[in-house]
Amino acid sequence: MDNSAKDRSLLACGMVLFQCALYGLGDPLAKLAYTHVPVYAFLSFRYLLALAVMWLLFGKRLVQNLHTCRVSLVILPCICVAGSHLLSNMALQYTTATAVGFLRSLSVILVPLLALVAFKRRISLPEILVIILAVCGLYLLCGMNGLAGFGAGELLALGCALFSAVGVLSLRYSLKKTEPLVMTMYQTLASFLVALAGALLSGEGLQMKGADASVWMAMAYLAIGCTFGGYMLQNRALQMIPAKTVSLLMCFCSVMTAFFSWLILHERLSPAGMVGAGMILAGVAAETMLSGRESTEKNENQK
Fold this sequence. Notes:
Strand content: under 5%
Number of domains: 1
């Protein structure tokens, strides 16, 4: 791999890790907000705010590039991203933020398995070992902090993991022909429409009577940092590194969720959880090296 390719790979990995930090803080903030206001109403205003910021900052660029994007390329990624974020936020109402972080990160298993089924891609033994290492680490990190039982929250978080895995795979293909900013706009619009439908169909409506200054501040952070910033970071990274690498790097999100949940919600980790965090970081490093080796071998074969 030449220096330029290495730099792009490192930049992409950094983008995903920064996204994980944004999401890690976002989970406990969202959980706190849902003690004051309904989840669907909060999400509707969150995504609407993200859309407004996006058009305010990049409206001219969006108008110039919208015609270059085929609707068929954005339908599946948008449905998956909207479904994943909606289920993740609903799960926060029924279980701990740490538990949601663990189950959501199970998409690391589902991405290579779905790629095997959909694209007949082989999973190498080193990749299997890395997946096992990451999953064991995730269990040690989070499994002892909120997974003693299995209820509605855990089921919703598993659904989130499935949507996330399909979304990463479909995004990898769609972003070859779509600008990241345009894809981000469509994903945010889809998330808004799904949340709005949930608010109307549930009978909760869009009332935010219990919202105080902290709720509005949390919404602003989630809209700009997690929705707009998070979508953009992941979409750009998927143009530079494989989907399975993005999926494994996203495991770091559970580390950040556990840390901020301890800091804000006082969800404390056991010593085993600290060991699990180290195992996840080892898995991230191993996957990054494996991905680099695959790229090098591919380039050499092409020569």
